[in-house]
Amino acid sequence: MLPSQLIYLNLSSNNISGKVPDLLSKFDKDYSVIDLSSNSFNGPIPNVSSTLTILNLSRNKFTGGISFICQIVDGFLSFLDLSHNSLTGQLPDCLWHFNQLTVLNLGHNNLFGSLPPSIGSLIQLQVLYLYKNDFSGELPLSLKNCTRLISLNLGANKFSGNVPIWIGENLSGLYVLILRSNKFFGTIPLQLCQLPNLQVLDLSMNNLHGSIPSCLSNLTSMLHQGGFSQDVSLQTFVNNTNSTYGWGKYVDHAMIQWQGDEREFSTTLKLVKSIDLSSNNLTGQIPYQITNLHDLVSLSLSNNNLFGEIPQKIGEMKNLLTLDLSRNNLSGRIPSSMSQMSLLNYLDLSFNNFSGRIPTSTQLQSFEPSRYNGNKGLCGPPLTKYCPGDEEPEVPPLIGKGEGDGEDTDDEVERWFYIGGGMGFATGFWIACGALLLNHRGRHAFFFSFMTASKSGFM
C-alpha cells in the first residue's frame, strides 16, 4: 500500500504493465512528483492529486481522454508530460488553473479539435509540444499571451489559417518554431525575422506561397557561432525544490527533418541551426541575403517553385552540413564558391535546370550522381556526361571495319593480304596478254621463245 504522504514517486524506465490504481489520488503534500514514464501502463489515466507539481506519464499505453487535468486546481502543476500514448479527445478548456505550468507535452497522441482559448492563461509556459496529433483550426489569439515560450512545436497536425504575425511580435524568446506538416497558408510573415534567438525554423509541408523574406538574414542566432543564451536554455529545471530530488529533466527536444529523414534531437538541439521551408508553393528567387547566415547548418528549400540562380556567395556558408534545393525551377551554373563548403555532407540539387560544369572539389564530387539528376545541362564528375572540350577525339574506323566491330585480328589482316595479292596478279596477267594480242611481232617472239624453252626441258 502506498503511503498517504508520499512526496516523490519515480517508477520510470521499467517494464511495469497493467492499470494504475487510484491510490495516486491520495497524495496530500503540496510538492508531489509522479514519474511513471517509459513503462507499459495501459487503460485510462487514474485520478490524481490536486497538489501535483510534476506529472510524467509519457511513453506508455494510456488510453482515453485527458479531462482529468481539470481536477488539478490548486495551481501547483509546473510540468505535465503525457506524450507517446494513445490518448484521444479534446484538450479541455480549464487551463486557467495552471498559471505555474512551464512544460506542456502532449505530443504523439490522437488528440483532436481546436486549442481552447484558456491556453493563453499559461503565462509561465516555456515549452508547448503538441507534435503529431490531430489538432485543427486556427491558432487561438490568446496564445500570444504565452510570452515566455522558448519552444513551440505544433508540427504534424491539421492547423490552418495564416501563420500568425503575433508569433514574431509577442514570442520574442522563441528559439524553436516548428509548424511543419499542417495546413497553414498565406505568406511567410516578416515578423518572424524579429526573433533574435530563433535557431530552428520549420514551416515545411504547408500551403505557403509568395517569396522567401530576405529579412531572414536578421536571425542573429544563425549569424554567429554559439547557442542560445543560458537564461533561455531549455535545460529547464522545473523549480529549485524539484531539483533537490534530482529531477533536472532536459526538455529541449524536437523532431526535425534532417538529411532526408525525420530525427529527434534532444540535448544536441542547441547546436542545430536550421531553416526548412520545403514542400510549399514558394516562388521567386533565393534571396542573396540568406548567405549571411554563416552559422546555419541546414537549409532545405526543396519542392517549391523557386527560380533564378543559386546566390553566388553561398560558399561563404561554410558551416552548412545539409543543403537541399531539389525539385524547383532553379537554373544557371552551380556557383564555384560551393567548392569551399568542406563540411557539406548532404547535398541535393536534383530536378532543376542547372547547366555547365559541376565545380571541382572534394565534396561536390563525393555525392551520388542521383543528387544531380534532372539537370540536362549539367556535366562533369560525378556525372558520366562530358563537358564541351572534355570528349576524346573520335577515331575514324578502318576500311572494311563495320560499325561496332572490335579491333582487327591477324586472320583479317592475312585475308586482306591474299585478296590484294590475287587482284594484283590478275591485273598484271591481263595487261601482259593484252599487249601480246595487240603487238604482232611481240606475239611471234613470245611464241618462238615458249617453244624453244619447251624443247630444252624448262617447261
Explain what the structure shows:
By secondary structure, this protein is an alpha/beta fold. The protein has 4 helices and 29 strands. The chain has helices at about 165-170, 240-245, 410-440, 440-455; strands spanning about 10, 15-20, 30-35, 40-45, 50-55, 60-65, 80, 85-90, 105, 110-115, 125-130, 135, 150-155, 160, 175-180, 185, 200, 205-210, 255-260, 260-265, 275, 280-285, 300, 305-310, 320-325, 330, 345-350, 355, 375-380. The strands form 3 sheets. A 14-stranded parallel β-sheet has the order 2-4-6-8-10-12-14-16-18-22-24-26-28-29, with no helix packed on it. The protein has a 13-stranded parallel β-sheet with strand order 1-3-5-7-9-11-13-15-17-21-23-25-27, with no helix packed on it. A hairpin with a 2-residue loop joins strand 19 (about 255-260) and strand 20 (about 260-265). Helix 3 (about 410-440) packs across helix 4. The longest helix has 29 residues, at about 410-440. The termini are far apart. The model is unreliable at about 230-250, about 395-430, about 435-440 and about 440-459 (pLDDT under 50).
